[in-house]
Amino acid sequence: MNKEFEFLNIISSTLKNPKYLGDDCAYLDEFKLAISQDSLIEDVHFSLLYMTPYEIAKKALLVNISDILASGSIPKYALITLGGNLTNEFVKEFYKGTDEISQAYSIDIIGGDLVKSSKIVITITIIGSYKNKTPSSRKNAKPGYVVAVKGEFGSSAMGLRELQEGLQEGLQEGLQGEHKGGIKDSYFINYHKNPPLYPKIAKDIASKVKNPYAMMDSSDGLIDCLYQITSKSNVGANIEYNKIPTRINDKELVLYGGEDYSLVIALSEDDFNNIKGLSKIGTIIEKKGIFIDNKIVQYGGFKHFE
Hints:
Strand order of the largest sheet: 7-9-6-10-8-11-12
Structural class: alpha+beta
CATH class of the largest domain: Alpha Beta
CATH superfamily of the largest domain: PurM-like C-terminal domain
CATH topology of the largest domain: Phosphoribosyl-aminoimidazole Synthetase, Chain A, domain 2
CATH architecture of the largest domain: Alpha-Beta Complex
Order of helices and strands: HEEHEHEEEHHHEHEHEHEEE
Helix content: 25-40%
Shape: globular
Number of domains: 2
Largest sheet: 7 strands, mixed
Strand content: 15-25%
């Protein structure tokens, strides 16, 4: 079993009241609020060798906003904790990026913390509202539901590969590995640094569906999303590979590459037909497992503790 899942099982079995656990957001129904928290660690989720503080801040906020959107909620507030061996310049550039994204999504930064640590650590708490909307749950997929997506798959992983290869080439040529040392942004590199989000389609789904639905973002890859949804719903999924939106020819990256933050949704056929802009890639089935073109595939995705 994935080590992260083992830890989550331990946490759920240890807490006397784990009712809020299981999705990327906790739903406080009495207030119609969704709350999500995520952390990004230097040299695990990003590197200063190819990203500036400004770029890091933008992505850190975007990937947290993505969880709120995928819950069917509208992001409203954020708290940011920033740790590291910080300098005035780093903090200023970091909060320039933070301000740009918070303004774009009408989010208020309402607090946080500053701490010293050996590596840069960014922890963001996002609060969203699902008033007058139907929130998502991974437990809602049912046999016969459509598996739909919004976005593309494999582009961010390809961008990371290009960054790492470009960095290695630069080091071999005697560069010091600084961000401005020669790695030019391509389509895929820009996609990795600035993953597109889909607030309108997420809002349409949460506002228009008539039946329970499951929605996630592909932070840890398409197969991971499908596994999370099908295992929680006690169902399976059959996917047609040639219907998966992608710009690359690497099947491994398309299925298992993470950080695209595309939406993966399981919803009824009627609801799918009422939502414009989604791509159907498969069907939820009774038989357990994830199948690509009728062939079962193994679980895979980003492994946080390996």
